[in-house]
Automatic annotation (TrEMBL):
Organism this protein belongs to: Mytilus coruscus (Sea mussel)
The entry's keywords: Coiled coil, Secreted, Signal
Protein name: C1q domain-containing protein
Subcellular location: Secreted
One cellular-component annotation, GO: extracellular region
Length: 287
């Protein structure tokens, strides 16, 4: 009886011990599961780090490839310029040695004009045109109207603008003015935005950049790696608020030098290039 009574007294404690043992076992299982998850997450984290490192290396490789392609494009532009000059030179030689034969009925009008003693010039149709009688009048007329011709063989000048917006350019982003209107001398590349100097001399370079609303832009005008001018455009946080910044430099450059516009830090604004606001880049040789 006493033994039964003792067992009944110890039974609740034994039951509690058993329950505690079960709880400890469950906690151990949970800890093992969490440890397995931590190990799995650690392995996954290491794999992600390797992927990020690989992508970073690929990004650097692509940047180097882009730089190499830009240099190659500039070199091809320069070679194209040299070839065009050579072709033009050959054309001049051929035209100076060739003989153009025409029928007697197709002579130039200038050979059929008659000049009267009073300084009035007539063509075959009898149209009377006032002609300067004296050397002074001839020089005055030349100053007023000029020669009427531009020597495109020796003139170097370019003008281009952006046809699309450039949103939020990052640091060291080079602007490309893709719409070329003037490119005498073929020194400007619409693919890279770089002007490569075809012949050494003193040049004028000018630019105009429009900043879109809600942000700022930061750009340098460089000759090779040297900064010659900088601009900072900022607009207030107001709808349809735009900013226009421009600059002009005069610089002596050598053949093969590169002139371009590049951002010197991340831009929060947009460089505009559309119908109402065209960002432009231009230059010409003085001598």
């Amino acid at each position: 009886m006493e033994t039964l009574y003792c067992v009944m007294l110890l039974l609740p404690g034994l039951m509690a011990a058993v329950d505690m043992q079960k709880e400890i076992s469950e906690i151990r299982n949970i800890l093992q599961q969490q440890e397995s998850q931590i190990i799995s997450l650690r392995d996954e984290n290491q794999a992600i780090r390797k992927d990020v490192s690989r992508l970073h290396m690929e990004k650097q490789s692509l940047k180097m490839e882009v730089r190499s392609l830009r240099k190659h494009a500039d070199r091809l532009d320069f070679e194209n310029l040299a070839l065009k000059k050579e072709v033009d030179s050959l054309g001049l030689i051929i035209s100076s040695t060739g003989v153009k034969r025409t029928n007697g009925t197709h002579h130039q009008i200038e050979h059929n004009k008659e000049v009267s003693r009073i300084g009035v010039m007539k063509d075959k149709k009898g149209i009377r045109n006032r002609y300067p009688k004296t050397r002074r009048e001839q020089l005055k007329a030349k100053r007023l109207i000029g020669t009427g011709q531009v020597n495109t063989q020796t003139t170097t000048a370019f003008y281009a603008y952006m046809s699309t917006n450039e949103p939020h350019p990052s640091t060291h982003h080079q602007l490309i003015f893709d719409e070329v209107k003037t490119n005498l001398g073929n020194g400007y590349s619409k693919f890279t935005g770089t002007f490569t100097v075809p012949t050494a001399g003193v040049y004028v370079f000018t630019y105009k950049l429009y900043t879109g609303n809600h942000g700022a832009i930061h750009f340098d005008l460089l000759v090779n790696d040297a900064i010659y001018d900088s601009t900072y455009g900022e607009t207030d946080d107001v709808s349809a608020d735009f900013d226009s910044d421009s600059g002009t430099i005069v610089v002596a450059v050598n053949q093969g030098d590169n002139v371009y516009l590049r951002s010197y830090e991340d831009c929060t604004g947009t460089v505009l290039g559309y119908r109402k606001a065209k960002s432009t880049f231009a230059g010409w040789k003085l001598n």
